[in-house]
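User: Design a sequence. Structure:
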């Protein structure tokens, strides 16, 4: 189960707005250009895939503020 909120949020801890995984396992494959690699952007790309797999819409995925990735939120999670 996964809620459309940051992993450390009260919604996650208390099971609010939970989405169930469609299957018991998933394989996520992503490719990144090594010359322009940004770790926080790569981390968000993987986190985004996980939320999408659970059925959470793009506009509900945490770690985005004003159409930008909130890198400090990812690092501090």
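Assistant: Done.
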């Amino acid at each position: 189960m996964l809620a459309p909120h940051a992993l450390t949020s009260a919604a996650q801890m208390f099971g609010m707005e939970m989405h169930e995984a469609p299957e018991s396992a998933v394989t996520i494959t992503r490719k990144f250009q090594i010359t322009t690699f940004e770790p926080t952007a790569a981390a968000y790309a993987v986190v985004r895939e996980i939320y999408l797999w659970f059925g959470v819409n793009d506009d509900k995925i945490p770690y985005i503020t004003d159409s930008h990735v909130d890198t400090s939120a990812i690092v501090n999670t």
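Helices lie at 10-13, 39-53, 71-75. The mean pLDDT is 82.
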